[in-house]
Structures are given as C-alpha cells and as structure tokens.
Amino acid sequence: MTHPAPSRPPGPLHSLNRHKERGSTERAALDAILDDVLAGTLSTVVDGEPWVVPMLFARQGDRILLHGSTGAGALRHVAAGAPAALAVISVDALVVGHTTFDSSANYRSAVVRGALTPLSDDERPAALDALSERILPGRNAEVRPMTRQEQAKTLVMALPITDDGFMVKTRTGTASAPDEETDAWHGVVELRTVALEPQPAPTSSAAKVPESVREFAAARVLA
Fold first, then answer.
1. Taking Cα atoms as reference points, which of 112, 128, 208 lies closest to residue 165?
2. 20 to 30 A Cα–Cα from 44, which one of 149, 166, 217, 218?
C-alpha cells in the first residue's frame, strides 16, 4: 500500500511555541547537526500505534540515507510512503540553575519530516557504501564488499530534505541569572562523547587495529 506525500499545514508540529529564538530553518544549521550526530530516531504510526526506532543514518546531499532489515514490518511501512520523521539530538552540556526549575541543557537538535523512498537494486550498493563511510570512514576498503545476498536482505531508504520539511532547535550559553537572593552554585557542565581504546573481538585474529578504527578513535580522544 502506498501513501500520499504528506502536506505541511501550519500548526504546532511545524513551528515553535516557546523559545522561538532557539529555532532555525537554516539549511547550514541542519547539515551541521546531521553531519555530526551518528544516530537518530525514526518515527511513524503503524496501525494507529506510535512506532519509534533508533537508527544510524548518513546525510548524502539533499537526502538522508537509512537502512534496516527487509524483514522489519514497520520499515516496510515507511518504505511504502507512510509519513515519517527523523529526530536527532546532541546534548552538549548540563545547565545547572540556581533552582531545579531554572536548570536546563545545552543541545543541538533537528527534526526532518517527509516520506521515505526505497532505493532500487542499482542504487543500493553505493548507498550502503556511503552509509559505511559516514559511520567509519575507510572501512569499505579494508573488508570484502557486501554480497548480493546480504544486499538483498537490506532495505535502504532515502528521506529527502526539503526547505519546508525540517526544524532545528538549539540552546547555548550559561545558566540564567537568578532573580532572587541565593548562594546556590549555578553554571555549566560540558559533555563530550569520546572513544576508548579499541577492543578486538575474541574471534579476531588480526594483528593490528585497522587504520579506519584507529583514526575514528583518535578523532574522539578527550583533549
């Protein structure tokens, strides 16, 4: 069953009611978040019930590539054109206010809405390579290519990025100045995602950690 392309009526799903100054529809802001964050949550409605699943993704120009098993019924549902949304977020700091009410977080977030399109057999190999390169650059050259059987078991979809199909929201800065007398500490605790030393699997007989893994980990060492 196919679904009509979703329209975008005005309303709370497509605009911010609070802290509108934190919102943006700048494409550069969206690209920066999508190119930095590795995973997001894909959401839709299946048989009247909400459905949300975390997924790795890759931005490729004006589209977002996602993949999963062809045996996943909900993925087939969105691949048929059901309206969907991909949400990504990076929490960059805890903002500790002088009260719990005034506490918050610094973050970068984005929601991209639209209809996903399954890629053809001809497009699938290059798209899977692009996903791998986005997640672990250089790994494709270190291992054998995916077999036809492996490709046939993998559903690859593209979510187009349109000018009116996304919203970016961010918060930066320190804690708000107290509006009352207080001696409570307030400020910011920055957060970072770091890579630890690569650990080989028990079945790995390779003598050295491959270059792709070394470079991935080195780029995420806490300075």
1. 112
2. 149
Could you tell me if 83 and 6 are in contact, meaning their C-beta atoms sit under 8 angstroms apart?
A: yes
Q: Which residue ranges make up each domain of the chain?
A: 16-176, 192-223
151's tokens: 């490709």
Query: What is this structure's pTM?
Result: 0.87
Q: Say if residues 75 and 68 touch (Cβ distance below 8 Å).
A: yes
CB count within 10 Å of CB 209 equals 14
CA 209 to chain CA centroid, Å, is 27
User: Taking the chain, what is the end-to-end CA distance rounded to the nearest angstrom?
Assistant: 51
State how far the Cα of 44 lies from the Cα of 48, in Å rounded to an integer. 10
130 close to 116: Cβ distance less than 8 angstroms: no
Distance in angstroms (rounded) separating the CA atoms of residues 82 and 118: 12
The position carrying tokens 């996304």 is 166
> What CATH number does the domain located at 16-176 have?
2.30.110.10
Task: Report mean pLDDT in 10-residue bins for the chain, 223 residues.
Answer: 44 59 87 97 91 95 93 80 94 98 97 95 95 96 95 94 95 96 98 94 94 95 74
Q: What angle do CA 58, 131, 61 make, to 5 degrees?
A: 45
For position 70, what pLDDT does the model report?
A: 83
